[in-house]
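hey can u check if this looks right to u? its 121 residues, i copy pasted from the old doc so theres a chance i mangled smth
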Amino acid sequence: MTYPADRQYSKDHEWITLGNPARVGITQFAAQALDEAVYLELPEVGSQVRAGEPCGEIESVKSVSDLVAPASGTVTAVNAAVVENPKLATDDPHANWLYEIEVRELGDLVSSDEYDGLAKE
């Protein structure tokens, strides 16, 4: 699998674009493990998230998983399209972001090549 090089990745299988605000989503690896998302609980606009800490949930036909913030900062937007149709998050995870964040501090992130290696382990 090739992961887009224009973003960084967390060991919790989420991606973040570089910039402010940054967009956050789940990786293809996570999407395949979850199968089909049926419900998303995302952080509220204006809320503070902390890198490495849960900030929401994604529920699929297989399981419920925490969404773990890849950076610390303030949530500035939530993608209404994926909230209304959570399947978008797992059908095309690198095109469908979940929320935007005004980044204060990045968490422990890796490049697309490094993440590809982690996902293969």
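DSSP finds four helices and ten strands in the chain.
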